[in-house]
């Protein structure tokens, strides 16, 4: 079987926004407690943050991290998480039926972001709270001293404003599960008023309004139209979420789901265009895909805690999906989709980053390790920066429930900003056939294979665990070669590859 791709230097989608490789951390399960924060851990720094986790996050070069939720934020009082620790209240978290100690709040999260070299993206509670808390929080975080909340921040140890640019106006407000769920009209109006108020404080803030929680919501995509008609001029991005699952144990259907993601993005891109036309606006709202990942392995084991059968535990094991090789292929396809749709998707956040449906796992008092999904995320974040190329793809395909002719070869291409490297991220979705890949290179000049990394040769179920953390790791590939402007490589069945060319 053969696939032929044409890559031309001048056929570009556009510059990839670095924020495409963002992540998300919620006060949920062990994401914060014993994930990033564990003062008694042997690697803990002066702030109680695990250095082993900081090192892994640094390796991922995560540009932005959304915090503190998620569903959690919709009943969160941000004031509980500031001030002397011993005075912070323990609260019942209604989203995940757990207890929140508030040992970590915005100050600790900011210090952690500095340690990992990332930017904060803060979500505002528009579920149980509203405009007044939103403006107070923004003044606390970004306001000058000499203002009421700026002085409170100073009294809590930080005179300098945190300077947070990105603000999410609530979380999944379309979801009936959300504390303070709203109709599109109720939410759109509130989002517009909150956005106007925050802009009165600082017009340069990047504001993200909630779109759909997934494309199966009955309100999708009318939700986006109505919400944007209320607040189009006041916001910068509309947020989308999607989680992927292989509940029927059908790999072909599972790996086709990135086509559904592509259609979801396309529909909302059109909705944005529609509202833009209605508004006669010059402004172009873009997409913040600020929750995406595989999520289903842990569903059954989480049921009791979520149903309240375990009381209100603090930081229990929740949403701890152990990812397998099949999920790594899925994450490779998802990231390829974001690169191909980087014209409209400006921010994307893998949900989440540590322990909770995450590429990084930790054991309390013990090790931290990389899940299978860590690797495609790592390669995309490390090398998927520059200009996304508009590739012409000729690949055999298969029909699925979500799309016809799903190409066996899923590929994206990125030309770096210096014009010195050309990188391809490739998934072979075929269960049994090795595919001979040919990439016709046009306009790039002389090229040589600089690096070739492969995830393959293990069962779809293979996973990295505490006792066997290196079961699925990338190996150096040997099949890629360039001659006379043609890149060739052999793609084993069910494989992920990163091929990086050095250009003369
Ligand atoms: O990431 C887990 C949860 O998924 C988030 O809290 C919520 O926003 C979404 O439903």
Would you tell me which CATH topology of the largest domain applies?
A: TIM Barrel
Number of strands: 26
Number of helices: 11
Given the helix and strand composition, which structural class is it?
alpha/beta
Shape by Cα distribution: globular
Rg (C-alpha, Å): 23 Å
Largest sheet: 8 strands, parallel, barrel
Q: Strands of the largest sheet, in order across it?
A: 3-4-7-8-9-10-11-12
- In percent, how helical is the residue content? 25-40%
Residue fraction in strands: 25-35%
Please state the second-level CATH architecture of the largest domain: Alpha-Beta Barrel
What is the average of the pLDDT values? 98
For the record, what CATH class of the largest domain applies? Alpha Beta
Measured distance between first and last alpha carbons? 31 Å
Superfamily (CATH H level) name of the largest domain: Glycosidases
Break the fold down into its secondary structure elements and pairings:
Blueprint: E1 2-8, E2 12-15, E3 22-24, H1 51-60, E4 64-67, E5 91-93, E6 98-100, H2 106-116, E7 119-124, H3 131-142, H4 148-155, E8 166-169, H5 184-201, E9 206-210, H6 222-231, E10 237-244, H7 251-255, H8 257-278, E11 286-294, H9 299-306, H10 325-340, E12 345-351, E13 360-362, E14 368-370, H11 374-383, E15 387-389, E16 392-394, E17 397-398, E18 406-407, E19 409-415, E20 421-428, E21 435-442, E22 447-455, E23 475-476, E24 481-483, E25 486-491, E26 495-503
Parallel strand pairs: 1-21, 3-4, 3-12, 4-7, 7-8, 8-9, 9-10, 10-11, 11-12
Antiparallel strand pairs: 1-16, 2-15, 5-6, 13-14, 15-19, 17-18, 19-20, 20-26, 21-25, 22-23, 22-26, 24-25
